[in-house]
């Protein structure tokens, strides 16, 4: 099923692929699952390429990526067995070209380990909002939810991370934005 200009699609993947793969890696925590997730998202997008290429194809693919991840997560979570301790992060690094260089790989693994502490929706918000640097509005559009949901999920996620890592540098995990219309706590 032809979706549009194949050369244009290949160029898009060459330019945006590493960023999208990075997002997939942070969502899944596994290099190979990230590659599978991105490949599935691109396969879903290709038939519609002629229609979406004119708009914002990266946002469309990112949204497809997040939705597929949620679907995979719902399908596979029943097979997971809870443990009393969080397992050590995988020794596998991130996809080539999509992640930090040698000295920064440990930081990427640390981030993946931290993201595993969060429920799926909070992880999605943190990846899109803070690691992909999307605005609250853009994150809400990708996730198909309200801006209030993005803010509340980000706040809960950051509080969880601060609780687990009390010495975390304030610059790495920003303080939550104040909610307008509510009185400050006394």
How would you explain this protein's 3D organization?
The chain is an all-alpha fold. It has eight helices and no strands. It has helices at 6-28, 31-45, 49-52, 57-76, 105-115, 120-131, 136-143, 147-164. 60% of the residues lie in helices and 0% in strands. 26% of the residues are buried. The longest helix is centred in the N-terminal third of the chain and has 23 residues, at 6-28. Residues 89-96 and 98-105 have low confidence and may be disordered. The chain has two domains: 1-77; 119-172, Winged helix-like DNA-binding domain superfamily/Winged helix DNA-binding domain (Arc Repressor Mutant, subunit A, Orthogonal Bundle).
Gist of the model:
It is built from eight helices and no strands. It has helices at residues 6-28, 31-45, 49-52, 57-76, 105-115, 120-131, 136-143, 147-164.
Which helices and strands appear, and what pairs or packs with what?
Blueprint: H1 6-28, H2 31-45, H3 49-52, H4 57-76, H5 105-115, H6 120-131, H7 136-143, H8 147-164
Helix pairs in contact: 1-2, 1-4, 2-4, 6-7, 6-8, 7-8
InterPro entries: RNA_pol_sigma-70-like, RNA_pol_sigma-70_dom, RNA_pol_sigma-E_actinobac, RNA_pol_sigma70_r2, RNA_pol_sigma70_r4_t2, RNA_pol_sigma_r2, RNA_pol_sigma_r3/r4-like, WH-like_DNA-bd_sf
Domain RNA polymerase sigma-70 region: 16-79
Keywords: DNA-binding, Sigma factor, Transcription, Transcription regulation
Rg for CA atoms: 18 Å
Query: Mind describing the biggest β-sheet?
Result: none
Tell me how many strands there are: 0
Shape: globular
Assembly state here?
single chain
The unreliable regions are 89-96, 98-105
How many distinct folded domains? 2
The assigned structural class equals mainly alpha
Mean residue pLDDT: 77
The total of helices stands at 8
SSE series: HHHHHHHH
Work out the strand percent. under 5%
Task: Kindly report how far apart the N and C termini lie.
Answer: 61 Å
Residues in helices, as a percent range? 55-70%
